[in-house]
């Protein structure tokens, strides 16, 4: 993602077994919310889990199809909207990319640390997440989703610099 990153990084994606377990958990979570994890939604989530990092929608479109056939953009965008709405994925606005939620079993505020060199992302618990929800509640608001983004350099990029 970033320019100037010439060193190697550890692959972040999940193993096939972990992806299978995550997809099974996602199906159960959707069912518990009265929703369905349809085949297109499942495929997009699978691609996000496999990547293990933030992925742009057009890359998901290219990777979506089997046998080298790309998906139609509306299919992927609708799936991403669903995954974000149900808390199974997050949109990282500053880099126009999506990432599978690392805490897919519960609704929560999300914060992302984004490396401007290599593009690696890490989901962390925001230190003021609960306080923000309490403040919103006191003001009569209900926050449906919160995403905080911090940009800098990951440990590998800092060491390599």
Could you characterize what this model shows?
The protein has about 160 residues and is α+β, with helices and mostly antiparallel strands. It contains six helices and six strands; from the N terminus they run H-H-E-H-H-E-E-E-E-H-E-H. The strands form two sheets. A three-stranded antiparallel beta sheet has the order 1-3-2. Strand 4 (about 110-115) and strand 5 form a beta hairpin. Helix 2 (about 40-50) packs across helix 4 (about 75-85). It is globular, with a radius of gyration of 17 Å. The relative contact order is 0.16.
Our count of domains comes out at: 1
Biggest beta-sheet profile: 3 strands, antiparallel
Strand order of the largest sheet: 1-3-2
What is the count of DSSP helices, taking H or I runs of 4+ residues? 6
Q: Which second-level CATH architecture applies?
A: Orthogonal Bundle
Quantity of strands, as a count: 6
**What is the arithmetic mean of pLDDT?**
86
Any idea of the CATH class?
A: Mainly Alpha
Q: Indicate the percent of residues in helices.
A: 40-55%
Strand content: 15-25%
CATH superfamily: Winged helix-like DNA-binding domain superfamily/Winged helix DNA-binding domain
Main structural class = alpha+beta
Radius of gyration, in angstroms, nearest whole number: 17 Å
Low-confidence stretches: none
- Find the CATH topology: Arc Repressor Mutant, subunit A
Shape: globular
What's the helix-strand series?
HHEHHEEEEHEH
């Amino acid at each position: 993602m970033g320019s100037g990153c010439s060193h190697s990084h550890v692959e972040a994606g999940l193993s096939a077994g972990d992806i299978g377990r995550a997809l099974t958990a996602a199906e159960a979570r959707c069912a518990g919310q009265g929703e369905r994890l349809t085949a297109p939604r499942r495929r997009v989530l699978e691609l996000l889990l496999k990547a293990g990092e933030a992925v742009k929608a057009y890359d998901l479109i290219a990777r979506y199809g089997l046998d080298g056939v790309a998906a139609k953009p509306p299919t992927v965008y609708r799936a991403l909207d669903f995954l974000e709405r149900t808390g199974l994925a997050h949109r990282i606005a500053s880099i126009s990319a999506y990432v599978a939620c690392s805490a897919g079993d519960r609704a929560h505020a999300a914060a992302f640390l984004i490396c401007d060199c290599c593009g690696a992302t890490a989901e962390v618990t925001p230190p003021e997440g609960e306080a923000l929800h309490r403040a919103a509640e006191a003001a009569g608001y209900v926050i449906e989703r919160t995403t905080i983004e911090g940009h800098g350099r990951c440990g590998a990029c800092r060491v390599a610099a």
